[in-house]
Structures are given as structure tokens and as C-alpha cells.
């Protein structure tokens, strides 16, 4: 072997060793640091939002806290759950660049997104509808031609809306709360996203009776938690944690807390979303 070949071999070996060293699982990094950075939304009640006391709370928040409990057990030391705000526009980037270890953020698992990130198993199933002022002539996507419809940047809702109502004027805003504010101010004629998010927006209004959720579902939205690609140890751990909540009744308790019949977010068809359905990613 020539001196050049020897040096090249040594350099390649060092590079490979460095790659292996840098490929430690996020789960191991969390155990080492004692901190679990979880990305959640602040604008999507009841999944993730800031309550009247200034606390970040919601369905997604409760689920990531359960993952935090399981991390404490497997790491054999207390793990601090740090909630960080993400939006539909930045959540994938934040997972990719390590700002957060996970994004539990009403994210639909799609094949297109799987080109850049991984997803947990499905933990909630929803579909897209419309939120309009009570008495609006808009009853479905067929009535949206020439209408201004608010939604969030970077969401599947934005894509679905353009496909289902190509003659509508889609107004993409930073957050769903911004879209609802635009509806309240008359700057848009409707807001469109997943039905449970619409339910939360409606419930946040001073007088919810002034708004109505209308039309049939025009999409299928299987929610998965966003994870960095090619980290099977971390992905498997998250899936095991979600499965544990289903097996021991924790998921049902959290679901009932946020979507039960006595809550302001009560679902008209709770069986549609309650059973952590095993849905394939949708092709978007």
C-alpha cells in the first residue's frame, strides 16, 4: 500500500468513526443531558395552547409529558420536559436542526414530509372542514369560489384547500389563531383546517354561537409526532411510549380530559379519533 493510500485509508477510517460517534440516538442524548425539548403549538386549542394562567397546555402537551415520564424511567434519572413553541411553518426545520427532539404539533404524516423527517405511529385521526360565521351561505367547499379562506402557512390544510377549492382565494397566515382573528374581523370569509382545531378556535370566541363548523370532511389527517430521520432507537421509544398510554388507559384519560362530552371541545363523533388508529401516511 502506498503512503498516499495509507493516509487515505486512515482519513476514511477516522471520518467513519466520527460519523458513528456523531450518530448517537436522541434518546441517549436526552438521558445524558437530562432535558427533553418538546415542540408543541401555542395556537391550536385543545392540542397546544396558552391558557388563562399563561401555562402551555393541551392534548399534545399531555402526551409529550407522558413520554417524559417514560424517559425518566429508562434514563434512571429525572428528565426535565422543556416545551418549545413550534408552528406549522417551522416545526420540521426545528426537528431537523435539533431545536426540538420531537414535535407534537397536529402534524399529518405524509409521504412528502417523510422525505425529510420521520413520524411516530398515528396518535390521532382528524379531517378538514370549514369554520364560518353563523348564517353564512358557505356550507361546503363547493361554495368557496371567489371567497377568502384563512389557514396556516406550511400546513397540509393549505394544500388540501387549494386542491378542494381551486377557485377560492387562500389566505395563508402564520398561525391558526391569526386566521380566526381575520375571520372575526371580516378579512376572510372562512377558516379551514382540521375539525378539532376549528372546534378549539370556535370555543375560544367570546360568543361561540356566532360561528359554525360546516361541510363534510374533505381530507384524512392521521397525526404523527415529527422525529429526526434515521433514528430508529428514538422512534421506537416514542412509539412504545404511545402504545403504553393506550394499554394502561392513560391515553383514554387524556382524550376524555380534552374531548370528553363534558368539555367545551367535545367531539360529535369521538370514536373517530379515540383509538390511536393505525393509519398509513397520506400521499401529499
From TrEMBL:
- Which residue numbers delimit the Ionotropic glutamate receptor C-terminal domain? 35-261
One GO biological process term is: amino acid transport
The reply to whether Transport figures as a keyword in the UniProt entry is yes
Secretion signal, residue range per the UniProt entry: 1-23
Q: Name one GO cellular component term.
A: extracellular region
Matching PROSITE patterns:
SBP_BACTERIAL_3
Any single GO molecular-function term of the entry would be: ligand-gated monoatomic ion channel activity
Keywords of the record: Signal, Transport
Question: Where is the Solute-binding protein family 3/N-terminal domain positioned along the sequence?
Answer: 35-262
The entry's family comment says: Belongs to the bacterial solute-binding protein 3 family.
Designated name of the protein: ABC transporter substrate-binding protein
Amino acid at each position: 500500500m502506498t503512503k498516499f493510500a495509507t493516509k487515505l485509508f486512515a482519513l476514511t477510517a477516522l471520518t467513519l468513526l466520527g460519523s458513528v460517534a456523531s450518530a448517537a440516538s436522541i434518546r441517549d442524548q436526552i438521558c445524558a443531558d437530562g432535558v427533553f425539548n418538546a415542540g408543541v403549538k401555542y395556537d391550536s386549542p385543545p392540542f397546544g395552547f396558552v391558557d388563562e394562567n399563561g401555562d402551555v397546555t393541551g392534548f399534545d402537551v399531555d402526551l409529550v409529558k407522558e413520554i417524559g415520564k417514560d424517559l425518566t424511567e429508562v434514563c434512571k434519572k429525572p428528565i426535565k420536559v422543556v416545551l418549545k413553541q413550534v408552528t406549522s411553518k417551522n416545526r420540521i426545520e426545528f426537528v431537523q436542526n435539533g431545536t426540538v427532539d420531537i414535535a407534537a404539533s397536529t402534524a399529518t404524516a405524509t409521504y412528502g414530509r417523510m422525505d425529510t423527517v420521520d413520524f411516530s405511529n398515528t396518535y390521532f385521526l382528524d379531517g378538514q372542514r370549514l369554520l364560518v360565521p353563523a348564517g353564512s351561505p358557505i356550507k361546503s367547499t363547493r361554495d368557496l369560489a371567489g371567497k377568502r379562506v384563512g389557514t396556516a402557512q406550511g400546513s397540509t390544510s393549505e394544500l388540501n384547500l387549494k386542491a378542494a377549492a381551486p377557485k377560492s382565494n387562500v389566505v395563508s397566515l402564520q398561525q391558526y389563531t391569526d386566521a380566526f382573528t381575520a375571520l372575526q374581523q371580516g378579512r376572510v370569509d372562512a377558516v379551514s383546517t382540521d375539525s378539532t382545531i376549528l372546534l378549539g378556535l370556535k370555543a375560544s370566541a367570546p360568543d361561540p354561537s356566532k360561528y359554525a363548523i360546516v361541510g363534510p370532511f374533505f381530507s384524512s389527517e392521521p397525526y404523527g409526532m415529527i422525529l429526526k430521520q434515521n433514528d430508529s432507537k428514538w422512534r421506537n421509544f416514542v412509539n412504545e411510549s404511545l402504545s403504553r398510554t393506550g394499554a394502561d388507559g392513560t391515553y383514554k384519560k387524556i382524550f376524555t380530559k380534552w374531548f370528553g362530552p363534558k368539555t367545551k371541545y367535545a367531539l360529535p363523533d369521538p370514536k373517530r379519533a379515540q383509538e390511536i388508529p393505525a393509519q398509513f401516511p397520506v400521499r401529499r
